[in-house]
From TrEMBL:
One of its GO terms (cellular component) is plasma membrane. InterPro entries: ELMO_ARM (IPR024574), ELMO_dom (IPR006816), ELMO_domain-containing (IPR050868), PH-like_dom_sf (IPR011993), PH_domain (IPR001849). This is ELMO domain-containing protein. It comes from Adineta ricciae. Residues 360-551 form the ELMO domain. Gene3D superfamilies: Pleckstrin-homology domain (PH domain)/Phosphotyrosine-binding domain (PTB). The lineage of its organism: Eukaryota, Metazoa, Spiralia, Gnathifera, Rotifera.
Length: 846
């Protein structure tokens, strides 16, 4: 709930709905939306009377109006007005239900009009009241209990309205729908004469030339009957023509008509048999229907549908349209329809293996080879029709007896990536994808011949292990696309579907074009990964992720949809009225024409190039690191770390001391008290095994070079000095020296030689004021020796590398503990390893 101002006043927006204009004369000027400041001490009737006066509504009728929420359609009363947030949008609605009298009185009043012999005087007003009141479930229950449905059904079957669908007014159809749907105890099967009404509705919808107000109301009732699995469902499914329903899905219809036409088609496809579903493929293959659906999708993406707040300019606009529908709900119905269409178009091919004796498929395979390797077919000006004619005219049943010719054919099939060289058609026997992969590969060969030849010849120059197999890749790409497009999976009408299914409306033959583009992507990724034949599954998983992420990038943003579905009014607006053209402009600019650019094949290809192998690896590493960090932050893992920390610290201490016992050569700067010069020389430093003395031995540069070349730190010393640990007063690294303000010995130390590692040095101070400065080669050596001296002097290891090593070792031990708990035991082979046939020669001991 929004925060109230200091005077407890809130600001709301109120706009006009065309549906309340029935029975009222048209105003001279449009009824613009209004911004109202509500005072809790002023009754709502006063505000409603003021709105009716500004909109030129007679004061006598103003008592019959109320405010309703624009999104939930709930009425605003004196009891719930305190829950209104600032910026909420309302619309003015007829409301005898809440403001005129009690529900029982309203039901009796409406029944009196419905049963009156002079009913036609109140036809429009009564049905408008009944339609709005029927949306309330308690009113619907009272109306049914008072036998109101019998009076309502008589209006459908009396002599004047029988056998004439156009006399079924939209308000009459909406009233019947609202009463039955909102009262769940009433079933369509139990209504009297409902079969006659259904027949008239089916005839009216199949005409495809009626007004949108009639068609949307009729399809709303038919959809409810089929969706509730009535006994009349099969009759509606068998009688309604899908081709006529698709005629309502054009750009000129309002959103409600489009929505219920698509919903009715989808529910018929979900509950119909195979014959009914096959009619969808025939209907959607029509060029006119394809063009209409493409225009509809483009208008939806560009946010070009008509607004519900337009000034009424025709009779059709008198019916409230799209009150509870949004653009996202219409998109979901379009995506669901496309899923049904894709299933009927490709499922049978995907689940069918090619007949080995069918000449059609053998001709396709022969054409694949001839297009790649025959010189007479390498001309780029050959048309697709010529290639198709050659496939139908060639004689593939001719038996080849020449062994050299057979060997050449098998070599060509091997270069194409076939596994079975004697009978290549067997490669497509796996189901899925079956013959669908062969048809897609043949489409690639015919329509993208240059890319096809380039793909084959580029891989022909490589060894068999390094070649990207064309046929095997085509089968895998077809399987990936079928998985991503959910082909072969029965669509669920209650689930959300991805927006990228709209691509099939805008781009012709998108499935085949996507196959060609993804097959080229497979070859590109194969080269980037430097893969060989054993890495096929790894490349396949990477390509699957590339295609999936590229398709996910194609979609309408939720923010733009929410902006379109609901217009918020800021409390800071000071105007009392909002201009309707300005409001419409704000809503239509939520999605620009740039949104349509995301639903093009070029954008899809661009996304495939962006999600390359390098980015996929980087993203996988980031996800793995996040997963490990999440696991390591679990409470049980933190407890395990605390138990293992002391053991890990002990192991790290032992590693540091082992490094010191191994010994290392450092450039050493020695400074003694009273000496005028400092000594710069190479010295070999080593911790003795008793861990009580450190010896430093002077060595020559030649011996040091030989020891470094042989990776041996032990040298022949010229002089040897033993330093007991109790004689060491302090040990600091150069970072410690920069932080220490009491290090006086540094003042007496000489200058470091030029180009020395002064930034990575360790200074050892003895009790006799002698200092040794060890110039280390890198930070890690300096940290190891500094930590070692701190251990010997009973101090804490405070270097960065010590903490990093302990944390890495701690995480490794935790992972091992988790694997021991979760993973099954690894069974080691029991048999002995075989003795190699050739043993290495024995070398005499020196």
């Amino acid at each position: 709930m929004a925060t109230r101002t200091s005077n407890n006043k809130i600001k709301i927006g109120v706009h006009w709905k065309n549906s309340v204009a029935i029975g009222l004369p048209s105003p001279g000027s449009p009824r613009h939306p209004k911004l109202i400041e509500l005072d809790p001490n002023v009754p709502l009737d006063s505000y409603i009377s003021k709105i009716c006066d500004d909109w030129k509504i007679p004061q006598l009728n103003s008592v019959h109006y109320a405010l309703r929420y624009d999104d939930t359609h709930k009425f605003v009363t004196e009891q719930n007005r305190l829950q209104i947030p600032t910026g909420q949008v309302f619309y003015l609605s007829l409301s005898h239900l809440l403001f005129c009298r009690r529900k029982e009185d309203e039901v009796r009043d409406l029944l009196k009009y419905l049963s009156s012999t002079d009913y036609h005087r109140y036809d429009s007003t009564v049905l408008e009241r009944l339609k709005l009141a029927g949306e309330d479930e308690t009113f619907a229950l009272e109306f049914v209990n008072q036998y109101g449905l019998e009076h309502l059904l008589k209006l459908f079957v009396n002599d004047e309205k029988s056998n004439n669908f156009e006399n079924f007014t939209p308000n009459l159809l909406r009233s019947l729908h609202n009463i039955v749907v909102n009262q769940h105890a009433v079933d369509w099967d139990n209504l009297e004469s409902i079969d006659i009404i259904i027949d008239q509705l089916i005839v009216g919808v199949n005409q495809s030339k009626i007004t949108r107000s009639h068609s949307s109301s009729a399809m709303m009732i038919l959809y409810s009957i089929v969706n509730n699995e009535s006994k009349y469902s099969s009759k509606i499914i068998q009688t309604l023509q899908i081709g006529h329903l698709l005629d309502y899905c054009n750009k000129q219809q309002d959103m409600e008509t489009q929505y219920y036409a698509l919903s009715l088609i989808n529910v018929i496809m979900g509950k119909g048999d195979q014959i009914i579903r096959s009619l969808l493929v025939v209907a959607m293959s029509n060029t006119v229907v394809t063009l209409r659906l493409r225009e509809l999708v483009q208008s939806i993406i560009n946010n070009d549908e008509p607004s519900a707040n337009d000034s009424f300019s025709s009779v059709d606009n008198l019916v409230q349209s799209s009150r509870h529908l949004t653009r996202s709900s219409l998109i979901q119905q379009l995506c669901l329809l496309q899923r049904f269409y894709l299933n009927e178009l490709y499922t049978s091919q995907m689940n069918t293996a090619p007949d080995r004796h069918d000449s059609k498929y053998r001709d396709m395979i022969t054409e694949l080879r001839r297009s790649a390797f025959d010189t007479d077919l390498l001309l780029s000006d050959q048309s697709c029709q010529d290639l198709s004619m050659r496939v139908t005219t060639m004689n593939s049943n001719e038996t080849i007896t020449n062994p050299r010719r057979v060997e050449a054919l098998q070599r060509d099939y091997e270069r194409l990536g076939f596994q079975d060289l004697r009978e290549p058609i067997k490669d497509f026997q796996s189901v899925p994808p079956g013959i669908l992969s062969l048809q897609n590969l043949f489409y690639f060969c015919i329509h993208q011949k240059n890319d096809y030849i380039r793909f084959v010849l580029e891989n022909s120059c490589k060894t068999l292990q390094q070649q990207c197999p064309l046929v095997k890749s085509a089968i895998e790409i077809t399987r990936i696309l079928c998985t991503l497009f959910s082909i072969g999976i029965e669509p669920n009408r209650h689930h959300n579907h991805a927006d990228y299914f709209l691509l099939f409306y805008i781009i012709s033959s998108f499935f085949e074009q996507a196959f060609v583009r993804c097959l080229l992507l497979f070859n590109k990724t194969w080269k980037e990964m430097r893969a060989c034949d054993v890495d096929f599954l790894v490349v396949s998983s990477v390509v699957h992720q590339q295609i999936g992420q590229s398709l996910d990038d194609i979609g309408l943003t939720n923010s733009s949809i929410s902006i379109h579905n609901k217009t918020l009014i800021s409390p800071s607006i000071n105007q009392t009225t909002l201009s309707s053209p300005i409001l419409k402009t704000v809503m239509n600019t939520s999605l620009t024409s740039g949104a349509l650019q995301k639903f093009t094949f070029d954008y899809f290809s661009e996304r495939l190039n962006i999600h390359n192998y390098k980015d996929i690896c980087k993203r996988r590493d980031e996800q793995e690191l996040k997963r490990e960090e999440t696991v390591m932050r679990l409470p049980i893992v933190e407890t395990l770390k605390e138990r293992l920390r002391s053991h890990v610290e002990l192991l790290t201490r032992q590693a540091r001391l082992k490094t010191m016992k191994k010994g290392q050569i450092f450039m050493t700067i020695e400074s003694r008290p009273g000496a005028k010069k400092t000594k710069n020389r190479l010295m070999y430093w080593q911790l003795l095994d008793n861990e009580k003395h450190v010896q430093c031995s002077e060595t020559t540069s030649t011996a040091a070079k030989e020891s470094l070349a042989n990776n041996n730190n032990s040298t022949s010393s010229l002089t040897r000095t033993m330093i007991p640990l109790e004689n060491i007063k302090d040990v600091q690294s150069n970072m410690d020296q920069s932080r220490s303000a009491s290090f006086i010995v540094q003042e007496r130390s000489g200058k470091f030689p030029r180009h020395s590692n002064a930034h990575t040095s360790i200074t050892i101070s003895l009790h006799n004021d002698t200092t040794y400065t060890l110039l280390c080669e890198n930070d890690y050596d300096m940290s190891c020796w500094n930590d070692g001296y701190n251990i010997l002097l009973h101090r804490e290891m405070d270097s960065f590398y010590a903490r990093e090593d302990m944390e890495s070792l701690l995480n490794l031990l935790c992972h091992l503990q988790i694997l021991e708990l979760d993973s099954p035991m690894i069974a080691l082979p029991q048999h002995q390893l075989s003795v190699p046939t050739r043993l290495p020669p024995r070398r005499p001991l020196s």
